[in-house]
Amino acid sequence: MPEAIRLLLVDDEWLVRAGLRTMLSGDPDIEIVGEAADGDGIAELVAKTGATVVLMDIRMPGVNGLTAAERLCALPSPPHVVMLTTFDADDLVVAALRAGASGFLLKDTPPADLVAALHAVVAGDPILSPQVTRRLIEQVTEPDRDARSATATRQIADLTPGEQRVAVAVAQGLSNADIARELFVTVATVKSHISHILDKLALTNRVQIALLVHDAGVQRT
């Protein structure tokens, strides 16, 4: 059975929130527990509503989605944060992912795909396709790329060979089941490796693992 989702909608446009509410209210496993027009006070609203997923516009007046995502992901028990954008190469998207957001969706995502994506992120599966991930990463030009690469390389070196292989597979956008088949291990082993990777590297989710692998320039062997 899909895991129940307590969803908080955050967008400065009332019509967008209304459209999302209409699209998502038909799923019996999704309960919309609150709405907000910007990211101000978002952590308090999550605590008040018990939201487990926050679906949030990345560009808003006042406190924008990036700042709100950083605040949410710094909580002791953060909700899953899924960003909304109208651009598939929005520079803020990568910054949000680095801050700990679980992924992002375009605002024109079909309703069925939106519902499936929310269930996927709660289940711990990536909601970024490999193609979209590559487009986002390729468009990022950072002045501290060399320093970031050196740091990421040191972090990857702290992983066991098995953990490194799993990390690279995660960066390719593979699901746990796909990784298990590719590496000839059980799904339980994959989950264990991912848990150890997150703990060792102080990361929040598998999207951050993918970005770290990219920064380190690790290729599949």
UniProtKB/TrEMBL annotation:
UniProt lineage: Bacteria, Bacillati, Actinomycetota, Actinomycetes, Mycobacteriales
Keywords assigned: DNA-binding, Phosphoprotein, Transcription, Transcription regulation
Domain HTH luxR-type: 152-217
Name of the protein in its database record: Response regulator transcription factor
One Pfam family it belongs to: GerE
Transferase listed as a keyword: no
Any GO BP annotation: regulation of DNA-templated transcription
Residue ranges annotated for the Response regulatory domain, each copy included: 6-122
